[in-house]
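User: Please predict the structure of the protein below. I'd like the answer in structure-token form so I can feed it into my own downstream comparison script.

Assistant: Understood. Taking the following sequence of 405 residues as input:
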Amino acid sequence: MGALSHLKVLDLSRVLAGPWASQVMADLGADVIKVERPGSGDDTRSWGPPWVSDPQWGEVPQSAYFVSANRNKRSVAIDFTDPEGQRVVAALARKCDVLIENFKVGGLRAYGLDYETLSQKHPGLVYCSITGFGQSGPYANRPGYDFLIQGMGGLMSITGRPDSEEGAGPLKVGVALTDILTGLYATVGIQAALSHREKTGEGQHVDVSLLDVQVACLANQAMNFLASGVQPQRLGNAHPNIVPYQDFETQDGHIIITVGNDGQFRRLCEVLDMASWADDPRFATNTARLASRDELIPLIKAQIKKLPSAYWLERLEAQSVPCGPINELADVFADHHVLHRGMKIPLPSGAEGSVSMVGSPLKLSRTPVEYRTAPPALGADTEKVLHEWLGSGEAGVTELSRGHV
């Protein structure tokens, strides 16, 4: 039994941030019911190729994107723009502990599925709304997407090569990182609200926005700016506060070296056969190295480029200097440590030859994550969930379960 196996979650969200939050809860044991539009479902079901096939889905493959964020859930297909669908979804909401949605601000009010309406009959409901800009403020009614928020939230201004280098310009991160982080923050907020409910019996509205999360996750870069008033610059793969902390070209590729203190720097100098650098006033401390970045980095680059990556990695690791390769995904999922940590798992259906999935990073000693079910086919669980949560005597259940709504 998972740590959250006592919880029922109604997931009205689509795409990534909301489904990511509900998948984390589902991995930890929560019973997550994903409400989808009949016929089309979550937008990401069609975001292929690539596609994932499995016997449980029949001849209808699922997009790899959808599969990445929807395991351990059950799907019900209900059209809540229809009055009967609204009534049934509201009835499901009254049976759940948590509701997650990512419609535009006020978008569910017309269907009686907003927090104010539902909480009147279910005051213990923890209702999480995920939007681009939050439930209040000048931008509240704007749509928000990860790429847009990476730009508006400052992340792209500090990501990419500096203006002095070829290929300069702002860049987004290679995955929808703001969506992922928003999903994780939403999960934290939901757990905090559930803890409050355990003590008081009161539910609450959890308001999480992509822009808020992106600004919060600027972390040290944001504080660098607030402390100094100076706009952080794009540094490519270099670090704004630590030197050397970046990639270096070798004779046959690239490696990363991340020196976090002066002792590590001294050991790096010894590996490079340049022990005198550790006592050079320009380089002896991190503060000095920051000031002398433009002098030190070319010296290190010249040494590293003389020999192949394997040579440097072996010797740097032997001296406990943090370093590593720049892996492609084939390397990542062949890495013996990644495999040992369970980050590559078979599709839970267990079908022979099925595609693999990415595992959960959460390792709990007493209530470990369980991979119970593969992402569901659209509406696969409608009849079972409606009878299980609402009972066979609930008017309209039979018609809904047959897909008439």
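That's the full token string. The chain has two domains: 8-216+343-401, 245-326.
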